[in-house]
Each structure stands twice: as C-alpha cells, then as structure tokens.
Amino acid sequence: MKVALLAHDRFPIAPPFSGGLESFTWHLARGLKCRGMEVVVFAAPGSDPELGIEELDVEPLVLSDEARNDVAMPPEAQVRETFSYLQVMRAFARRPDIDVVHNNSLHFLPIVMSPAIPQPLLTTLHTPATPWLEPALRLTPTAPTVAVSDSVAQMWSKVTPARVIRNGVDPHEWRPGPGGDALVWSGRVVPEKAPHIAALIASKAGWKLRIAGPIADRHYFEARLKPLLNEDITYVGHLDTQQLRTLVGNSAASLVTPAWEEPYGLVAAEAMACGTPVLAVARGGLSEIVRDPGGYTSQPGASEVETVASAVAELPRVVALDRTRVRHYALEHCSLNVTVDAYAALYRELVSA
Fold first, then answer.
1. For residues 22 and 10, what is the distance between their CA atoms, to the nearest angstrom?
2. Where are the transmembrane segments (predicted)?
3. Which CATH number fits the domain that encloses residue 80?
4. pTM summary value
5. Rounded to whole angstroms, how far apart are CA atoms 286 and 94?
6. What are 229-256's pLDDT values in tens digits?
7. φ, ψ of residue 146 in degrees (nearest 5)
C-alpha cells in the first residue's frame, strides 16, 4: 500500500518540531514505513530527509505586480497555501499508484476536492471546529474523519461522525528519566497553550520551572510570559528531541496549562513516557489521557487566579506519584504503535471499500 500524508505548508516535517501536528505526521510516516508501506508526504520545504520518503513538490506562487496591486488582494500566504493544495490534489488525480490520502493539513481544499480524486481521502481532526473546515465537511458529508480524542469527536459531532484514534508517543524515544527538583512546561509559546499560567502555578507553589518550546507568538511572549521570568522561572529555548527528553525526564512534574479546549495534549503523553507525572488543567481531551497513576487534572476556574489556585492544590500529590508506574501507564495508554496500527487498519478498510 502507498499512503500520501498531507501536512500543512507552514512548517517542515522535521525535528525539532514546531508543534504536535508536525510531530504526529513525522512519527506516523516512520511507523507506516516500518510496517512495509510506501509513504508520500506533502509539507513545507525542509522535511527530514532521513525519513527516506517521497515529497510532493509544488510550483512556487508567481504573482504579477498588477495582481499584487489589486486592492482586493488577500494575504499572500493564504493565496500561496490555497494554490499549493490545489496543485497537490491535481497531482493525486494523476497518481494511480497512491492508494489512500491522509489529510492532516487543517485546510478546506483537500476535503472539498476529494470527490475529484480516485483515492479515498481520510481527514484527521486535530482541532476544535474552524470556520474553514466545518463548511467543507458539511459540503462533503461522506468524507471519512478521525478525531484525536473523544472530546474532539464530540466537538465535531454535529458536523461529522468521527472515529476516535488517539495520538501516541514512541516509548523508545521518550525514555524514563530520574526526575529532579524543578517542574517543566513544553510546547508552542502561544496564548492558547498559556505557559504564563504554568509560571504562575510554579511561583505560587514555590517551585522552579523550566519552559521549553518555539516562540510562535512574539507579542504574547513579551507581554505575558517574559515579565514572569526570573532565576526560578526560566525559558530555555526551542530544544531538539534529545535535549527536550532530557529536560522532561529530569523534572519532578510536567505542567500542561491550556487556555483552550486542548484536542489531545501530546506533551502530556511525552512526559508520562519519561516517567514524569503530569498536572494538567482539565480542558478538552487532557482528562482522557492524564489519569492516575500517570497524573492528575485540576479544574479550570472562572479566572486565572482560580485556575492557578486549583492547580497548586493538586501539585503535591502529582509530584508524589511513582515514576515507574507513570511510565507503565504511558506504555499502556499512550503508545505510538497502537496509533499507527489503528491508522493502517483504517487505510485498508477504506481501500477495500
């Protein structure tokens, strides 16, 4: 079987990953290859050459000065992205060697154009409903979909009956660590991930905190997070996988503090695979994966003060969890092998249908 994986064209599929979607696509591609499948990927330029997979190329956007000077000119990135996916979908129509297309792009065009290609197209819903994807799925009611958690499936239930396949992490990559005397927060530094809440929790509880991840929103970093940094609350940068694994494994607990309905929470699974217990604000799918003995959730409050107070009250029993049991919980409930096997089985189901 040959599978085409569609990512978005903003970030390459290569470590250090810009976010969970890039990590998911990279690990899925590698897992499918290990199961004897051929994999074709469309993503931003610069994807990991060590994956040894075919990348779908598209022609760069060319606009005349006259077109650029049109007063109705939309953002150029939006135009470029739309025509990139248009080219990709036209390429699939000429590729009978590809058996199934797996869409992780968060873009509407692959969905609405799926009836025009010979392959079945499966879309994984990595986010709550968006104003682009929702109408696309309403226009294409037979398009098969997967949700990354029960929470996401429920969010989309009025639009599409999504099957649930939870994300997973590679336990050989995320290995046990000894713990340490500080907490850790990892992920994209953006308002919806809310690392400033983690900083407030650590400060209120009297713990050191190390924050790692790409700064995807510079204004948020400067306005909300940077004022909270000091000798005990530090930002350590965007780390590669090995550096991040060491940091997480050498931490007493991981804080996951979303200010939105978190679809899954891959960083929580990564931490638990390292034996590091998780304290997560109970938003979205986090309550499905962060459970005793892997960690505990705290309830979001009506204000940041209440959210912080609830988490501080839970922190002592989180850091007291047995790291060996945390690791075993992750192996049982957050394994990448289970995720890849489930997608491979679904691909076969779609092709045979």
1. 10
2. none
3. 3.40.50.2000
4. 0.89
5. 41
6. 999 999 999 999 999 999 999 999 999 9
7. -130, 140
Give CA–CA dist 200/29, Å, rounded: 38
Q: What is the DSSP secondary structure assignment for residue 142, as one 8-state letter? A: T
Tokens of 94: 């000429």
Q: What's the full length of the chain, in residues?
A: 353
Q: Tokens for 39?
A: 């994999």
Q: At 28, which helix (H) or strand (E)? A: helix 20-34
Closest Cα to residue 101, out of 90, 117, 87? 117
- Do 153 and 22 reside in the same domain of the chain? yes
Q: Are residues 263 and 122 in the same domain?
A: no
Q: DSSP letter at 4?
A: E
Neighbours of 98 (CB within 10 A): 20
Convert the pLDDT of each residue in 93-121 to its tens digit: 999 999 999 999 889 999 999 999 999 99
Give dist(CA 350, CA 142) in Å, integer: 12
111 & 54 share domain: yes
Residue 208, beta-bridge partner list: 182
| Structural domain contains residue 54 | yes
22 by DSSP, 3-state: which? helix
Angle (deg, nearest 10), helices 241-249 and 266-273: 70
Continuous segment of H or E residues that includes residue 66: helix 65-68
- The verdict on 153 and 248 lying in the same domain is no
**CB within 8 A of 227, min separation 6: which ones?**
none
Q: Is the separation of the CB atoms in 78 and 109 below 8 Å? A: no
Contact 7, 42 (CB under 8 A): yes
Q: Determine the Cα–Cα distance for residues 238 and 91; give it in Å rounded to an integer.
A: 35
DSSP symbol at 234: E
Nearest CA-CA partner of 301 in 313, 311, 292 = 311
**Domain of 194?**
182-333
Residue with more model confidence, 63 or 162? 162
Whether a cis peptide bond, with omega within 30° of 0, leads into 293 is: yes
The first and second tokens of residue 66, run together, are 């006259």
Residue 173 lies in a domain: no
One-letter amino acid for residue 318 of the chain: V
